[in-house]
Write a structure and sequence with these properties.
membrane; Fatty_acid_desaturase; about 425 residues; transmembrane; transmembrane helix; two-stranded antiparallel sheet; FA_desaturase_dom; 17 helices
């Protein structure tokens, strides 16, 4: 998703509305991706150290003699054994109760905003409703992982309905997200938010580099990613014939694309009936708030820890080591609203665990993970502290080396210097 900004289409689209935005200011593991498989295991490989310090120092991932990139002394089975058995149980009624809760809040917010029709209330509505759209996305995300229930039919039906409502092609996204989980932490094979190599980075025009690493542009990447995917990877989440999908998955992709089109058509009809301004206020603005939440959260789960975290290639990568590069985050009051998605390490290792068991599962596994688990910084009621982490990461995490099986993000010291000079 992140690397969509290197594409010609992405750069063209971003350039066209740049002025408008300114105005608005482990054991051997075999993993298969959608169409290819990577047989990799933990072995010895050359580590490529970053010459620049990470955020808060420790650019090579080491502190007090501890190296995050070292193969862990435990296996994924050890983590699994530490998690209570009831944490693996999926309760469809409980999952559906969260869907009902979120939908009631969504329609209640829309009713209140429309009834009072107040400028201040509309602003509050946009923030609240955009957050609820994001919560709905997370429930659909759980359906995609099969953690919603043990029934594939129920998962598909609920996920398709929820994601279509917020203009996400459920099956297309579900399949690519599966690839992300199966290849997390791999420089080339990861599907979303994987780093640019130095070669690709240096081939970017100056303007695209600045936009890519300057808020708010990275927070609007998701819709274009769905349409065009990332540079170097062909296909679209809407196209059943793209390289993302196996032939036997094409029917599902067609279904989700049709549902997406039906929702888009419904919005057009609603605009004709109620007026485009009303639909803009009720749906479009919250939709873009949801997109910002999605990009914000997913970026921070794979970037921006106090020290640089490793990315892997070749024999140094394994499912366990890749999963341990993910980062938990505390979102304060938002934790419950967006279904504890901040407990991301255990979720990435065991995506089949229901969201309502993730907090307990994480606590139970900490003693096994040891220093490989990075305790998140505690948030106030709202996760304002994460904005600083986001901006720091965007200023320092620019690219990784073209070679090496263990690499770290490096910084282009001239990126923002040239920007300041041009101003």
């Amino acid at each position: 998703m992140e690397s969509w900004f290197t594409s010609k289409c992405g750069l063209s689209l971003l350039s066209s509305f740049q002025k408008g935005l300114q105005l608005l200011t482990n054991p051997t593991t075999t993993i298969k991706s959608s169409k290819s498989s990577s047989n990799v295991n933990v072995g010895s490989g050359k580590k490529m150290f970053n010459g620049n310090n990470g955020i808060g120092g420790g650019g090579d991932g080491e502190e007090d003699g501890f190296d995050f990139s070292a193969p862990p002394p435990f296996k994924i089975a050890d983590i699994r054994a530490a998690i209570p058995k009831h944490c693996w149980v999926k309760d469809p009624l409980k999952s559906l109760s969260y869907v009902l809760r979120d939908l009631i809040i969504v329609f209640l917010l829309a009713f209140i905003a429309t009834y009072f029709d107040n400028v201040v209330l509309w602003a509050l509505y946009w923030a609240a409703q955009g957050t609820m759209f994001w919560a709905i996305f997370v429930l659909g995300h759980d359906c995609g992982h099969g953690s919603f229930s043990d029934s594939p039919k129920l998962n598909s039906f609920v996920g398709l309905c929820l994601h279509s409502f917020i203009l996400v092609p459920y099956h297309g996204w579900r399949i690519s997200h599966r690839t992300h989980h199966q290849n997390h932490g791999h420089v080339e094979n990861d599907e979303s938010w994987h780093p640019l190599t130095e070669k690709v980075y240096k081939e970017l025009p100056d303007k695209s580099r600045k936009m890519r690493f300057s808020v708010p542009f990275p927070l609007f990447a998701y819709p274009a990613y769905l349409w065009h995917r990332s540079p170097g990877k062909t296909g679209s989440h809407f196209n059943p014939n793209s390289d993302l999908f196996h032939p036997n998955e094409r029917k599902e992709v067609i279904v989700s694309t049709i549902c997406w089109l039906l929702m888009a058509a419904l919005l057009v009809v609603a605009s004709c009936v109620f007026g485009p301004i009303q639909i803009l206020k009720l749906y479009s603005v919250p939709y873009w708030i949801f997109v910002m939440w999605l990009d914000f959260v997913t970026y921070l789960h794979h970037h921006g820890y106090d020290r640089k975290l490793p990315w892997y290639r070749g024999k140094e990568w394994s499912y366990l080591r890749g999963g341990l590069t993910t980062v938990d985050r505390d979102y304060g009051w938002i934790n419950n609203i967006h279904h504890d998605i901040g407990t991301h390490v255990i979720h990435h290792l065991f995506p089949q665990i229901p969201h309502y068991h993730l907090v307990e599962a994480t606590k139970s596994a900490k003693h096994v993970l040891g220093k490989y688990y990075r305790e998140p910084k505690r948030s106030g009621p709202l996760p304002i502290h994460l904005l600083e982490i986001l901006t720091k990461s965007l200023k320092q995490d620019h690219y990784v080396s073209d070679t090496g099986e263990i690499v770290y993000y490096q910084t282009d010291p001239q990126l923002f210097e040239s920007s300041n000079k041009s101003e």
